[in-house]
Write a structure and sequence with these properties.
By secondary structure, the chain is α/β, with parallel strands linked by helices. The protein has 9 helices and 9 strands. The longest helix is centred in the middle third of the chain and has 18 residues.
Length: about 290
């Protein structure tokens, strides 16, 4: 069941809801994301890969390491260390470009909903979570199992603080360097910052990195025709754009480059159902052995 997929306008603006209403929607969205699948396989599993060893009778077939088995010609099994609490960082881009919107729900609003739902699912799987701003907002960077910390961090993200430049590349790299052990970074950003791709690639060398990229339809479709005068949201720089072409690389423009660095990426439009494609994305990551 997907209670959000059929909504005419999708999700409400998170900043317009009361705290109680916000938490209620987050809980239902978290249920939807995990519906129909074993959540422990793809979100906040609480287990960590230990080693690959030869298969022995009685081993669970679903833990077969297909790559090693194909390479050696003999079946091998993946072993995991049970109940390792994998720290999870939800890094939300709160910069001005995330608020620019041609739809009722902004990119920032979609990012907040997804960070909240995935953060709650991770907590249910006993993975400590931190919600961190990719802008200038202060916040706790230490992952915690306390739900109050999650709600408090999200509450600070819901409202607009303008003007707010992006620091997402700097924030991601700083958190990655300060983390003593391997963790999961879920980065929710439109990827407008010029240095963010480099930061994500570096972080993926030590951590598991997932990018959820909110997309406004105007960024990939443009307007019916002609030229438009526009201004960059964060710098204010004016430019002239052709209305018949999208202004960005498109919904999958960054995917191949990020995939080459071991970063999983999905683009989610603000005017379309986000639950079904995200369910599919998480399930595929679970099958490939990702933490999310």
């Amino acid at each position: 069941m997907n209670f959000l997929a059929d909504a005419e306008n999708g999700l409400d603006r998170p900043e317009e809801l009361s705290e109680r209403q916000f938490e209620l929607v987050v809980r239902r969205l978290a249920d939807d994301l995990a519906y129909g699948a074993d959540a422990s396989r793809f979100v906040g599993s609480g287990i960590e890969y230990a080693q690959t060893r030869p298969y022995v009778p009685g081993d669970p077939v679903r833990q077969l390491d297909w790559r090693v088995s194909a390479r050696t010609g003999k079946p091998h099994i993946k072993e995991y260390e049970a109940m390792k609490r994998i720290p999870t960082w939800m890094v939300v881009d709160t910069s001005e470009s995330m608020w620019v919107s041609s739809t009722p729900l902004s990119k920032h609003g979609l990012a907040v909903w997804l960070a909240a739902a995935l953060g709650l699912v991770a907590l249910r799987r006993l993975s400590p979570v931190a919600v961190v701003s990719g802008g200038d907002r202060p916040g706790r960077a230490q992952p915690s199992l306390l739900r109050g910390r999650l709600w408090g961090g999200l509450d600070a993200m819901r409202t607009r603080q303008a003007p707010e430049p992006t620091r997402i590349a700097e924030v991601v790299q700083d958190l990655a360097l300060r983390s003593a052990r391997r963790g999961l970074f879920v980065v929710l950003s439109d990827l407008h910052a010029p240095d963010v791709l480099h930061a994500l690639k570096l972080t993926a060398q030590r951590h598991d990195v997932v990018v959820l990229q909110p997309i406004d339809p105007a960024e990939v479709e443009g307007s019916p025709g002609g030229f438009q005068r526009a201004a960059e949201a964060e710098t204010g720089a004016a430019f002239l754009a052709s209305g018949r072409r999208g202004w960005l690389n498109g919904e999958q423009g960054f995917g191949p480059e990020l995939a080459g660095a071991g970063v999983d990426h999905i683009a989610l439009r603000t005017d379309q159902d986000c639950v079904t494609p995200l369910q599919r994305f998480l399930a595929l990551r679970g099958q490939s052995g990702g933490m999310v």
